[in-house]
Amino acid sequence: MKACNTNPVIKYxxxxxxxxxxxxxxxxxxxxxxxxxxxxxxxxxxxxxxxxKIDRSSHSPSVTGxx
Length: 67
Known about the structure:
The protein is mainly α and 67 residues long. The protein has one domain. Helix content is 52%, strand content 6%. It has two helices and two strands. It has helices spanning 8-28, 32-45, and strands at 2-3, 47-48. Strands 1-2 form a two-stranded antiparallel sheet. The longest helix has 21 residues, at 8-28. The mean pLDDT is 76.
């Protein structure tokens, strides 16, 4: 997991927005609060769960320019 919460100000902003999303999800009774839980966990752990390196070398054939 790549570290993305190196700045403490951004960490507090993410915590505040996560708590806001959880509160709105509870108030409106929809799935937005569930997304707030994921962002809150990533804010406290200091990592980005959705930041995944994609290796594209296995998805496309190599082009050499020779037929």
